[in-house]
Design a protein that fits this description.
Blueprint (H helix, E strand, L loop, with lengths): L1 E6 L2 H5 L5 H8 L4 E6 L12 E3 L7 E3 L1 H12 L6 E11 L2 H7 L4 E6 L7 H6 L3 E4 L9 H12 L10 H4 L18 E2 L2 E2 L9 H19 L1 H5 L1
Parallel strand pairs: 1-2, 1-6, 5-6, 5-7
Antiparallel strand pairs: 3-4, 8-9
Length: 225
Amino acid sequence: MRIDIITVSPELIKSPFEHSIIKRGIDKKLVDVHFHDLRTYALNDYGKIDDYQFGGGAGMVLMIEPIDKCIAALTSQRTYDEIIYLTPDGETLNQQTANQLSLQKNILLLCGHYKGVDQRVRDLFITREISIGDYVLSGGELGAAVLCDSIIRLIPGVIGDETSALTDSFQDHLLSPPVYTRPAKYKGAEVPEILLSGNFPKIEEWRATQALQRTKKIRPDLLEE
């Protein structure tokens, strides 16, 4: 998989890709991530990429021309399965979306900034708009990092035990059951006896029951969906 990210702040977003599971996927050449500084396509030597919005109002808006030039340069080299704009008013990211995107070959991400982008960018170039939650960040960089993490960890070979990702919360519209490790007893708190039994069919039955109970208690909306 190849992921290209258009950003006003490339240094802000690079760090998450230099550590942990994402870095492992890159080192294994299972995913290729490239960052593109929008200011490279600025309208003048001062790096102009934004302007005041028509009709007045607070906040600067990313202009269409630099974004058009950047996207045109990238799409001239390859075809993208999705061109995604990270924005608070997009569809809310969930596990099913991450699953879908992890199967794609080429993805292009555009990080919003300031007051957003000229609406014509969204109308002409964007195929999908994604939000990581009902709140506003200073820019789309952190949202892009979250989206990439949720996708890359699903690529076969990135995580050592591939079945681990398949048992995460939300994969089957349920929350994960509780997990335990050594010691079996700690300050009076004990691991459920069933997990020490070695009876794996019963253990899986217990986990399924726990997952359902936790979902009913914490996220009943998942069961309604």
